[in-house]
Amino acid sequence: MLDAVERGLLQALQIDGRVAFSLVGAVLGVSDQTVARRYARLRNEAGVRVVGAVWPEAVGRQLWLVRVRCVPEAVEGLARALAKRAETSWVQIASGGAEVLCMVQAVTDTSAAESTVLSRLPRTPRVTGVSAHRVLHPFFGGSESPLTKNGPLTAEQCAQLSPPAAKRVTGPVELTAEDNALLEALALDGRAGFRSLAWATGWSQTTVRRRLAELRSGGVVYFDVDVDPALLGSWTSAGLWLTVAPGELAAAGEALAEHPQVSFAAATTGVSNLYASVQCPTGTALYEYLTGPVAALPGLLSVETAPSMRVVKGASPSVG
Question: What are the residue boundaries of the Transcription regulator AsnC/Lrp ligand binding domain, all occurrences included (predicted)?
């Protein structure tokens, strides 16, 4: 179980993945050495990672939720294969081992799209069905997580830790080879030092510092904390595919975003038009959540629940 310092540290890192440990220590009332030790322990013993990620729309990509059904004996291998692809994240085995669910960042260029996960999955042996749902509007997720809503920090403490607000990207940003090298390094370790990032890009540390600040303020890159929900006391995870009356979709999505159980919520294409990823302490707690806050959503017509058995790949490029 985590103590108040560790929970505060995780919330601080979700607010700003590259926040100085000296500032975190000042906010939490402990030394920066204590913060550094706690982070090292969470990283080494619990697999916590700060991950640099790119907003898909900032680089001309589309985000898709993909459900893949296959013969039972192929599920594990398929999940591992999908996890190795650079364009996938949050690859998990769900529905009692009957399907694999993942997020895919797809390119919009038609010629390049021929080799993507979306185009190749239907032709994969032992795959019995694929459904792809484009994310049209995210209500919660990305740089926000349950740590943002459920951590121990006060609003004043959160304000002290918050980085400058990023601009909203209105069109694709052209990235150089050095930019891509920087982003790849940050995807492996969002807290990598400027010396390490300079080595990865071939830039000077001064150039790395300046360019990273530009990418953050320009709404291209953000930081997320990859943490096992069980570490936070949530042992039961599920994906919810909700069908909501179109006129109530925005209100239902905004309500979902406020639920402490929700880690991601978005309007999507498909038979259902709203998706949410949720974490609860127990199966009983999930039942109470479904029959309480979810049932009370405006315009709700139906809900399909797909329990997650195991996450093979989270936000980090590495496979769990």
Answer: 241-310
